[in-house]
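Format notes (please read before filing issues)

Several people have asked whether sequences and structure tokens are stored in separate files. They are not. Every record keeps both together, in the order shown below: the sequence lines, then the token lines. Line labels are part of the format and must not be stripped during preprocessing.
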Amino acid sequence: MAITPMAKVMIVCHRTQVADLLAALQAEGICQVLNADEAAVSRDTPGLAALRSRPKDLDELVARLERSIGFLKEHAPPEKGGSFLAPRKVVDLRLYGEIIADPQARRPLEKAEQAQAAIEKARAEIDHSQGMLDTLRPWAPMQTPVEELGRLRTTISWAGLAPGQHFEQFQQELTEAGAALQRVGPAGTREAVIVVALREQAEQLQKLLRSYEFEVVNFESMTGTAAELMREYEQKLLEARARVEAQRRAAAILSGHLLKLQVLYDHYRNMLERERTRDSVPATEHTMILEGWCKKKDYLRLEKLVGRFDAASVARIEPAPGEDVPVEIENAPAVSPFETVTRLYGMPIPSSVDPTVFLAPFFAIFFGLCLGDAAYGLILFGLLAVVVRKLQGNKQALVMLIMCGVTTAIAGALTGAWFSDAIQALVPRDTAAFRTLNGLRESLMWFDPMTQPMTFFLLSLGLGYLQIQFGLFIGFFHNRRRKDTAAAVFDQLSWIVMLNSLLGLGLSAGGVFPAALTRVFGFIVIIPALMILLFSGRGLPWGGRLGMGVFNLFSTVFFGGDILSYVRLMALGMVSAGFGMAINVLVQLVLGVPYIGWLLGALLFVGGHLFNLALSTLGAFVHSLRLQFVEFFPKFFQGGGRPFLPLRRDYRYIYVE
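Then the structure lines:
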């Protein structure tokens, strides 16, 4: 339940063994390797330099595999695609080893590339043929071979598309200019025409044609009539489409080798990562220096691993002053799912504290109060439990929501919400079912938020005050452990005493505590106020110190605002319940519809409450998250740590058992 201690290490290895060493390090996944720019040895030892070469062949192979996998997936039968929850294919080590050792394993890659290239070529021909058909279609009535249009001696001709809207005016102006116009056929909103004129009139007529946005059609390199050309391109279109279909069938057959290509992709991608690491670390002529980090508890494993190589050695070294130490957090299984919240905010700096164990109970309780329906909690628990069983990869976030489903069910039972007020609204009151269900509901219920909103309001404020105080106490004990007594006393303890004194003063004035305590709390509050005024700006000149002290003393208002923020727990809980009540009212209305009322009511009940569950779950998650990030964390937590990213195998398409 803390930040994992890190050890800085240096591994020196002869070039002949570094590839195998990196493969072993990647398989273990326990060591983060620094590149030449990050490694302290590069700065301390002039002359060391990384290779900085790019493993071009391997990079291209990975890119080829990725393209071919995407291509074959498009043509694979639906059952080969995998499920949404488990998209990666499960492969055992024996099969994995056989595939990467098979010299023929890349043959499907070459065939897939050939099929893809053939399809792309055929599609280009289809596009070309379709375009030519669209161009020729308006000229189909023309009986003259198109090549004859350019063989006139004393005249010049233009074949093209003229505007249909002003065609008569266009024809008249051409005639007046001494040209002849032959109308061939319609082309959408334009007209396909042939314009013929004497060669000496060409320049004048071209200006006229441009003024009407005349679009010239070029028949160069074509022979035959437009109808003959169309038949030729229709045949080419049919042949190209047939080739596409044939290659698609071939790709569908090749998709049977998809698993083999996916194994190769993940294998070579991990190899590429090792090569990039090798080429980025400091090196001499004969050795390579792997400077990096591992968890202190993993150092013996690392030492044993490196010891398998006779040309490599490892030693622990001291980090440089102010060096950026990577951070990893580890928690007990009951708490680790809530690391999702911490990681969303950002890792703590090494001198801070891991907040996961502290936020976990608060987040779960807040989520439960925001959603606040026992039936919703049970549905959330059941659905996510099924999903987690089938899901591959990291399941922490879903496990966290399963735990929040439990707190939601408890909160709903304590507030009497089972699909909001479905028992009271939809079960006839004169039946044994109503008496049993409602009796059970009332026996579990603590209070009804709809009739006792002040109870919910005070509960929300109380939880907020408790969490803020808890955050201050965490900061106090953390600073004490760091032996920063001044920060512990003046930054946390003073506020703890201040806020509790103000609370006692308010409760005494309100009659909750004896009135005689009003004066006691009034005197007590002066002490932390003076501490905040005089010592919260430590290290500043007295003028700046007093100014900062006044500002920090005014921050009492901000603490009040932080506590009021927790009223959102009540607001979201009551909105969720109110929306559910509205759904139940609508269900009551449609139940009266003859014959199909029961069906409409069932559909509306299920659909409406599922929608409310989804919407309220999102709201509960976001607002519970906000209360941690904005109200709780600033009291003790400092983020911005650099995550620990060891060199490890990463699989995109397969899941190795």
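For reference, the curators noted about this record: The longest helix spans residues 597-632. The domain at 2-45+274-327 is CATH 3.30.70.120 (Alpha-Beta Plaits).
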